[in-house]
Amino acid sequence: FLTISDLFSKFQFISKYSYPSSPVKLIRTESSSSGSSKRPLPSPPDSSAEHPHKTICRSRNMLPPMSTLEAMMQRMLEEQMEARAEIRDIGRRVDELSSSLNARMDAIVKVQAESRAKIDDNTREINRLKVKIGNMEENAMHYADMCEIRFSGLPDLPDVRDIDSVATVLKVLECDERILSVRRWMPSRASNTPSTSTNATLVARFSSPVARDAIMSCTHKLAMMTGGSIFGTEDQGKVFAFPMLTPPLYKLWCSALSRSRELNYARPLIRGYSLFMRAAPASPLVQINNIDDLANLKPVEPRKTVARTHSHQE
């Protein structure tokens, strides 16, 4: 017969290789008739615990087949290769966009530099024009057409206003144009010798060049009148009318007047603030804009005219 010690040793050997995960429970047993001391006995294995061999077999049965694993691995490798290709393509596109952006930025910087240079040039030109315009505005009143007519040879009557004297002249000329203002004529070249003349020179301003030209077209009637016949005095002097011209136009008119005498032309005309020449009173008008236009005129045969006793415009 086997002793309790032998049984316990064999049980431990079997438990080590057959039930590695099962706990060992020791129990106290009574000794047999041999009267030996009490020794613990192992408890029987728990039937509820699953055998390790069965667990391993079941885990192996749950794994997919090898072909499926290889297919999964191959698919994962292909996905990684596609992802790497996409990353390389994205990197290439980023590089292209970066190069294009840098080129555009360089072009923008170049255009900005050119624009700054143009702005500086335009600013200087604008400042120059502002100065020029300012100077022209200062002389605007001197060079503008004020629509004025200068009447000379008028009797200086103390009890008659200057505007009434001009209105009397317009009445005999049968002109009803409205007079805006009247001022005394102040010659630019004042003489040191005091004037003893009793006549006055007045400058009348009208509403438009058309009104001024309409009056000037009637001034030929003054050739048949005297100051006395107009104002009811004993003055036998003539009254003259002449449009007030700007300095450039006045100089051109003086040149045209001298040129008309050389070419045997009729007296120059001022209409609408423009200068005209004509070979004869019935000839077509030729507009004169500068000295070159006067030089291009051809001379004509002298006309038989009656000597004039006045110098007003026809």
Report on the architecture of this protein.
Helix content is 47%, strand content 13%. It has helices at 4-18, 52-62, 66-138, 140-143, 162-172, 209-216, 227-231, 247-263, 291-295, and strands spanning 26-28, 40-42, 148-155, 179-184, 199-206, 240-243, 269-271, 274-277, 286-288. The strands form three sheets. The protein has a four-stranded antiparallel sheet. The radius of gyration is 64 Å and the shape is rod-shaped. Among the domains are: 69-143; 148-186 and 198-243, 2-Layer Sandwich (Alpha-Beta Plaits), CATH 3.30.70; 247-296, no CATH class.
Question: Which key terms come to mind for this protein?
Answer:
single chain, 314 residues, alpha+beta, Alpha-Beta Plaits, 4-stranded antiparallel sheet, 9 helices, disordered C terminus
Give the helix/strand class: alpha+beta
Individual helix count: 9
Secondary structure tally: strands: 9
How much of the sequence lies in strands comes to 5-15%
In terms of quaternary structure, what is this?
A: single chain
Percent in helix = 40-55%
In the sheet with the most strands, the strands line up as 4-5-3-6
What is the residue-averaged pLDDT? 77
Regions with little confidence, pLDDT below 50 for 5+ residues = 17-37, 309-314
Q: Largest sheet at a glance?
A: 4 strands, antiparallel
Proper CATH architecture of one domain:
2-Layer Sandwich
* CATH overall fold name of one domain: Alpha-Beta Plaits
Shape: rod-shaped
Order of helices and strands: HEEHHHEHEEHHEHEEEH
Instruction: Please give the radius of gyration in angstroms.
Output: 64 Å
CATH top level assignment of one domain: Alpha Beta
CATH superfamily of one domain: RRM (RNA recognition motif) domain
Query: Gap between N and C termini, in Å?
Result: 174 Å
